[in-house]
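MODEL INPUT / OUTPUT PAIR
PAIR INDEX: 1
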Amino acid sequence: MQFNIITIFPDIFESYFEKAMIKRAQENKIIEIKPVDLRKYTDKNDPHKSIDDTPYGGGAGMVLKIEPIYKALKSIRRKKKSRAILFSAKGKQLKQADLKRLTKYDQLIMICGRYEGVDNRVAEHLADEEISIGNYVLTGGEIPAMVLVDGITRLLPGVLGNIESAEDESFAKKNELEYPQYTKPEEFKAWKVPDVLLSGHHQKIKEWRERQKKKIG
């Protein structure tokens, strides 16, 4: 799968995407991550490479312009099974089911807003969907892009070493949180691991874990 991230800060992803699972997924050719510098798609006659302007109707802040975003999308949209996602406060709140749904695409193009927002014509005519990662405001779409790449990548075949881990974890089943986990030592500051987990009785452990799972929603 190819991830294209349209942003004015293409270098911001380097540290996170060069570590652990995401790094291995790239090395194994399971995913390809390509940050796209939006300024490269500004007017060639503009020495300032302007990607934003003041909002019509007045108001505070600057708004990302539609022209460079349109040019960037036109240039990088290559795969047949491609989807363009705009991160937006008014978008659908991201759920685990959405991550699983998005694994079916060959190319995901993510549009990262900044400043006061993005010209609404991007949402109306260019993006296939709008996504929010929560009911709060961030300074840009770069963190949501990292969330999406991470969440989708771990669901792709060959990424996680133990497939049961993905099937058992929180949200793998609708409205259900994973059971509690413990490891050595058996006792720390008089805080003990539940006896059933030390019993070696697999059926009792399975039943205990089922009881411990929490329903949400």
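PAIR INDEX: 2
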Amino acid sequence: MNETVHTILLTGGIGSGKSCVRGVFESLGIPCYDADAAVKSFYKDHGDGPCLLPQIEALVGRSLRGEDGQLDRKAFAGIIFKDKNLLRRVEEMVFPALTQDFISWRKKMASEGHRTVVLESATALDKPNLEKVWDFCLWVDAPVEIRIERVMQRDHCSREEVLRRLELQSPMESHLDAIDRIIHNSGTPEELKRSIKQSCKIVF
């Protein structure tokens, strides 16, 4: 637990609408750290965080770069999501780096006077290599068919590809002991905002 800055973990299954929830927190003036965006920056030669791409290429044994010299995300996903052992080894590099990057960011937010921050991560509860750096866990949920449709539209991928990604995440039921509050995100934006504000009252 962090005694200086109260940290909310915003998590949930792929396609549940975590980004929408994050947007509400941001509208309330609460800084939010997007773990997925941070990890993507680690794969860039000139990202804000550490560059892990050369080490990952060495692990995979081939170049993962496109014509622009940056990571070919589709090729990378096609490799690691088909090999659980390789995925585990990549995560052993990525998540400790993510932990340290988040802690540095949180210290910066504290220096600016913020006393509450949000860590958005779809997979935090599944990843032993990500240190528990939060005080309160908020899980976003939605019916699986809605989630599948959202991801297909967002990522322009097939239903089969989405289902493979869903299989990599454990269900909400396996994390009930770690979850402090569940937000159901299948209604209107107004309903979502009301639910978040109710959760905020409980958190604070």
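PAIR 2 NOTE: The two ends are 15 Å apart (CA to CA).
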